[in-house]
Specification:
Alpha-Beta Plaits, 17 helices, 4-stranded antiparallel β-sheet, 3 domains, alpha/beta, 434 residues, 16% strand, binds 5'-deoxyadenosine, TIM Barrel
């Protein structure tokens, strides 16, 4: 059996990993950064993949450079054995078949092929695409749906992103900032039901300085030991570093789109290069790096979404949230058409096929325009859900888009059940809910 085409290098820290990666690249070894497969534990969340032809060369370079690496391991290319055979009763076009064959043997898809998949229409072909992504999801990340919960602790924002319902200058019923005690109360409620990761999200609100956030992070760790995802926007390298040191584990900063013109058009105060730089810093600092995009932005074509997916792969992004754009009342984009459920599901499916070992949430935005959206996403490649756990009295003021669905534990459990999937063992729910 000689089906090893790739090897992966696992390092002891992200900084080591990035040094090794740039040295290998400088010496003409082609590398790919991938989320570390779970069997290697939580040493460094990103691994370096190289081809088998480059293995000896890489070993020599690593020995000479005296790097502290855990090891070089064979990396099985993910194949979906028997895929074509299992789909033989479906009528699909020849070019689609050719792509499915590549997925079956684990070959890398090109931008053109990714775009082709995103342009698929018609019930029969969509079914094949979603089923293929569902199988990839099952084989790589299994049946358990990860459940996290977000506390939106401030809706003050210094930015005026054209799509966002809490943008600076937008009329919201009320601007609010939760106090540390209020946040802790919400954190404990989540901890009590067994949730393991809390997402702390806010507008880009300078009120919450690194000192404030550090205090909060330390308190959460001390009192609950929960995993912490921060989602507080663009900050400096030093701030990201301090927050990581304080105990933050993950960071969610969406790229929203990798088309520079669209990015600039929708973000009057932002710079595309800065956004990419922030994502790079987060990676260098060893955060589990979460990104994502919106589907149906003005001027966005399937080719742009294909680029987004290739960007997630190239950056080794660990968690990818894909949601439809939804017009928000009172924003410059309030009259723009909303993104389609179908295109969002296609993007979820193709992202699973291309990025493979990643977390893909069935987003709140999708649930907001389609009651059954989360189940559909879970059956098209998604494997996680995020609850909205902002205290009820504040929630109404965090309408980043109109008609935002409030995903609570009950509706998440329902979506998981409807999708025929497993609840995580850590949830402490009453037996009759199981
Ligand atoms: N439609 C859809 N998603 C939106 N977001 C913000 N505003 C909108 C909107 N109008 C998403 C963005 C952002 C996340 C917090 O919510 O992707 O990163």
């Amino acid at each position: 059996m000689n089906n090893i085409q790739q090897y992966i290098i696992i390092c002891y820290s992200t900084s080591q990993m990035l040094r090794v990666d740039s040295l290998l690249k400088a010496l003409d070894v082609t590398t790919d950064l991938i989320p570390t497969p779970s069997e290697y534990g939580s040493i460094c969340s990103t691994a370096i993949a190289i081809s088998k032809e480059d293995k000896e060369k890489a070993e020599k370079i690593l020995q000479e450079g005296n790097f502290a690496i855990k090891g070089i391991y064979p990396h099985k290319i993910r194949k979906l054995a028997g895929l074509m055979e299992s789909l033989k009763h479906n009528v699909i076009s020849e070019p689609f078949k050719a792509i499915i064959k590549k997925v079956e043997v684990g070959e890398t898809l090109t931008k053109e092929e990714i775009t082709f998949l995103l342009k698929i229409e018609g019930e029969a072909e969509l079914k094949v695409l979603f089923e293929t992504a569902d199988r990839m999801r099952k084989e790589i990340v299994g049946d358990v749906v990860e459940v996290r919960a977000a506390i939106e602790f401030s809706n003050y924002c210094d930015k005026s992103c054209h799509y966002c319902g809490i943008r600076k200058g937008c009329t919201v019923p009320q601007r609010y900032r939760m106090t540390e005690d209020e946040i802790m109360e919400a954190v404990h409620e989540l901890h009590d039901v067994g949730i393991k990761t809390v997402v702390l999200q806010s507008g880009e609100d300078e009120f919450y300085t690194v000192e404030e956030l550090t205090k909060l992070i330390k308190r959460i760790k001390q009192e609950t030991k929960m995993g912490i995802t921060l989602s507080v926007g663009e900050r400096s390298y030093e701030e990201y570093e301090a927050l990581k040191k304080a105990g933050a584990n993950n960071y969610l900063l969406k790229i929203e789109t990798t088309n520079p013109e669209i990015f600039q058009f929708i973000h009057p105060d932002d710079d595309f290069e800065v956004r990419k730089q922030c994502a790079q810093w987060l990676k260098e600092l060893g955060y589990v790096n979460a990104s994502g995009n919106m589907i149906g932005l003005p001027g966005q074509r399937p080719e742009d979404i294909a680029e987004d997916i290739l960007y997630f792969k190239k950056m080794g992004i660990h968690m990818i949230g894909i949601g439809p754009f939804i017009p928000a009342d009172g924003t410059p984009f309030e009259k723009y058409p909303q993104g389609s459920v179908e295109m969002t599901l296609k993007a979820v499916a193709v992202t699973r096929l291309v990025c493979k070992n990643v977390y893909i949430p069935a987003t709140t935005a999708l649930a907001s325009i389609d009651e059954d959206g989360q189940r559909k996403a879970l059956q098209a490649g998604a494997n996680s859900l995020m609850l909205i756990s902002t205290p009820p009295k504040y929630r109404i003021n965090y309408q980043i888009y109109s008609g935002k669905n409030m995903i609570d534990l009950d509706s998440a459990i329902q979506a998981i059940k409807d999708a025929g999937r497993k609840l995580p063992k850590y949830l402490k729910i009453l037996p009759e809910e199981e």
